[in-house]
Design brief:
heterodimer; A: about 5% strand; B: Rossmann fold; 2 domains; 4-stranded antiparallel sheet; 10 strands; about 30% strand; globular; transport (chain B); ABC transporter ATP-binding protein (chain B)
């Protein structure tokens, strides 16, 4: 069982990164970014290209997964979401736009990266013994790095001027503009931060699991599940949702035949949402 | 009078509805000017146009020789104009401290920012007691103090106040009125005061404009307007 829980920790920390990214975008733009999983997948390929194809260090590739996928997010905000949101107010429109973007990115990735599964050489060798369970060192490194990234993000949001402005913008856009904040710049930045986190998560997990161009859809759905569990728009809820899904998934895969796990997880989430529609940490009013 | 602030021939429309129909107004350096009128007369639209939240259809807005129109809210703040919006619009899920610090977003002088934060907390001791509390949990009057404090944290030379007395206990309205007078007197901050509480607005201001359906119906020294029979009947309740 310890083994299962340690696995849950690996999955949970990276899921938390994914959920944090989608939550930042949701809270500042009120957009559910259904392309989040595809951006995660691209992050994985960025690391593969820098590490395996160009022969550069894994960690440089990881940095680039944040930079490149973040830049992609800024471009999405500037050229897709902003022009559309200026013209229409209905929320379904941005959801459809996000889904369309997901399909577009996935098709583009298939053309550019091909259909092959790609992985990187192990980032660390050896095995660590923890509480009587054995975990490859590489996985321990992934947990530690993901946890550090989460802490860094929370510090950035909680204690820097830009983080404070992002929180303000999530609560009241006009009032934020009245404090002298350039909203155009900040929304693009926030969107880029959110997608950059998807890129980081994908880049980090490629050290453990191989990535392929179809990997995004499942991640998008899982990201959506996580924020439904944790509570949409709340950062602490996103972290919690990531861990809850990580634990459910790991325990499920250990005890049940593979295809049953997500069937049961969906049933649990549906049941849970009937009881608590705004998630664990979410506020009833949004 | 040297007009530090001027609006000329301003029109604001929302779709086909014209909310402001070619108004002009002036405010001297460090003057308190009131803008009174019924609901829907266009008062808030004028303030939104000044701050850049709404793009005017036509007209020119100038402050200290610089054009404000066509720049956007962040540039208006950078040019020394701050607004306390109607309904306060504080950030409810942020601490009082973070709310106040948001007002200093554009400032780089961290020593000056903490000194000003201290000065505001000295002026409103209730806020100091609640500095770590979420601003949304405060009373209406306390929230108004946060909103005014937040606006002052940008060190403005012109302060726009939109209905500061709306929905607030009379005792706090008096405290806020005293505060506005004191920052105007001690720091030379000009004030444009939009109020439905015309009695208070005319008492605080040196000059006033009376707005009716998007046009300026009357203007002049506040004491004269307060004595004007039409104004008394329409806005001061007889």
């Amino acid at each position: 069982m310890t083994q299962v829980l340690l696995n849950a920790l690996v999955v949970g920390t990276t899921y938390a990164l994914i959920a944090l990214g989608i939550t930042i975008i949701f809270s500042i733009m009120k957009v559910v970014n259904f392309a989040h999983g595809q951006l995660y997948m691209i992050g994985g390929f960025v690391v593969y290209y820098f590490n395996v194809v160009f022969g550069l260090p894994f960690w440089f590739g990881l940095l680039m997964s944040f930079v490149i996928v973040g830049a992609l997010g800024i471009a999405m905000e500037l050229f897709l979401f902003r022009p559309v949101m200026l013209r229409v107010k209905r929320e379904e429109v941005t959801m459809l736009l996000a889904m369309g973007t997901a399909v577009f990115l996935e098709s583009l990735a298939l053309i550019v990266f091909g259909e092959k599964q790609r992985g990187v050489p192990p980032i660390a060798t050896g095995i660590v013994e923890l509480f009587g369970a054995r975990l490859p060192t590489g996985r321990v490194v992934v947990i530690v790095v993901a946890a550090l990234l989460i802490v860094a993000l929370m510090l950035f949001i909680g204690y820097t001027k830009t983080g404070r402005a992002l929180r303000a913008m999530a609560q009241d856009r006009d009032a934020t503009a009245l404090q002298g904040v350039n909203l155009k710049w900040l929304s693009a930045m926030g969107f880029g931060l959110g997608t950059g986190l998807a890129g980081l998560a994908g880049g980090l997990l490629v050290a453990i699991f191989a990535v392929h161009t179809g990997a995004g859809t499942a991640v998008s759905i899982k990201a959506f599940l996580m924020i439904m569990i944790g509570g949409a728009g709340v950062l602490s809820g996103a972290i919690l949702g990531g861990f809850v899904l990580g634990v459910l998934e790991s325990v499920g895969y250990a005890l049940l035949p593979g295809s049953m796990t997500f069937l049961i997880i969906f049933l649990i989430v549906i049941g849970f949402l009937i009881v608590r529609p705004h998630g664990i940490m979410g506020k009833p009013w949004g | 009078m040297s007009a530090a602030f001027s609006i000329s021939d301003l029109s604001v429309s929302y779709g086909k509805v014209r909310a402001v129909k070619g108004i002009s107004m002036l405010a001297g350096k460090g003057e308190i000017v009131a803008l009174i009128g019924a609901n829907g007369a266009g008062k808030t639209s004028i303030l939104r146009a000044i701050t850049g939240l709404t793009r005017p259809e036509r007209g020119e807005i100038r402050f200290d020789g610089e054009r404000l129109d066509g720049t956007g809210p962040d540039q208006v703040v950078a040019r020394g104009v701050a607004m306390v919006p109607e309904g306060r619009r504080i950030f409810p899920f942020m601490s009082v401290r973070d709310n106040l610090l948001m007002g200093a977003y554009r400032r780089k002088d961290s020593a000056g920012v903490s000194a000003d934060l201290d000065a505001i907390l000295d002026r409103f001791p209730r806020l100091r007691e609640r500095i770590k509390q979420q601003a949304g949990s405060l009373s209406g009057g306390e929230q108004q103090m946060v909103a005014i404090g937040r606006a002052l944290m940008s060190k403005p030379r012109l302060l726009l106040l939109d209905e500061p007395s709306l929905g607030i206990a009379p005792i706090i309205v008096r405290e806020i009125a005293r505060f506005v007078t004191s920052i105007n007197r001690d720091h030379g901050v000009g004030v444009i005061l939009v109020e439905q509480n015309s009695r208070m607005a005319l008492k605080l201001s040196s000059r006033a404009y009376v707005l009716e359906t998007g046009r300026i119906a009357l203007s002049g020294p506040s004491s004269e307007l307060a004595a004007n029979d039409d104004v008394r009947r329409a806005y001061l309740g007889g």
